User: Fold these one by one.
Assistant:
Number 1:
Amino acid sequence: MSNQDTVELQWIFSVIRHRLPLIISVPILLIVGMLLITSLQKPTYEASVVLYIQPNADATTNNYNLIMAGQQLAVTYSEVIKGSSVMQQVISELDLNISTDDLAEKISVAPVEKTQLIHVSVTDHSPEKAALIANTLANVFVTHVQNLQGERYAVSLTSIQNQLETEEETITKLQNEIDALNAKNVARAVQISQKESQLNDLRSDERALQQTQQTLQLAISQIPDSVKIVEKAGTNFESPYPTVLITVDIPPAIKGSDFSSSQSSDQMALTYSQMVTAKPVLADTIQSLNLTMSQELLASFVSA
């Protein structure tokens, strides 16, 4: 090594020796600063609810079509649930001091693939507030859907009721005319026959209208069961291992189905088995219990 190289190395070591406190203090200050910023940031909590979509059914609807309709409605309702009317109702009920857009940013909605389920999650710095918003949102949305369906059927019911009243008035009038002709014992067999034929036609129309009315009333009676809250959001941050009880409400099978029972049962089983082992549910379980395992490992412990 030449004398020049030796001098340069000595100069470099001299600079490092004089600047050593600065070289050591800069990384330490950066680490301390990052720790301070992290400690000042508020933690974010997430609360989730799951909605089950059950479309209205009549005697001609089979199980397969009912399930497909439920899956399609789940996709549609996933967009409706974050609508301004639903957001505004939640804000009013909870007296929140935020805009509908700000509330919508806290909410994540996604249909569970190949099921009739909608997964809704709410994030907030307060775990209690996140759960309160999630449960209130679910209740407001259920009421919103019921009101929409009720309004849709109200117009049809009013129209049918008016037609029934008109038919009953005409039937009463014709019956009185027939009774008057019979009472006079007038040889008007042809006229009476025509009146009776017209009366039979009107009665047939009345029966058809009554059947339609009953179908609509049945559909209205099923509105409260069309969307159900399957899981209630809850938080328990005092215990490191909180216990959660999940209750699943399985709707009754539709009778008179022309779809095979085995295929229908398989489809329903797929819906609920995917609900138990779906990634959102596994992720929420791991987060809630503070588990140090992957979703795949947790799923291996679950039998559904």
Number 2:
Amino acid sequence: MSKKDELKKIAYLARLEIKDNESDSFFSKILGVLDYMKKVQDHKFLKKEGVVFEKDILLRNDDVINTKDKYLIDQFIEKENNLLKVKKVL
């Protein structure tokens, strides 16, 4: 199957209506886009200054601090049986 036939099939599946007089122009543009995408895929990108990659991000460790439950419960505005009392949410 040629590239043009593949593109016709993709256009049909995408429900694109391409008139006969537009097909050559459309297909040449689409092939240009696909060729460009292939070049981008094959390109080896170098790390540039100012660009941050996920592996370079240093995250802090979370520290667990034990607190007394009574201290927290005493700060509740409304409480019931040592539980925070809140309005009903629907």
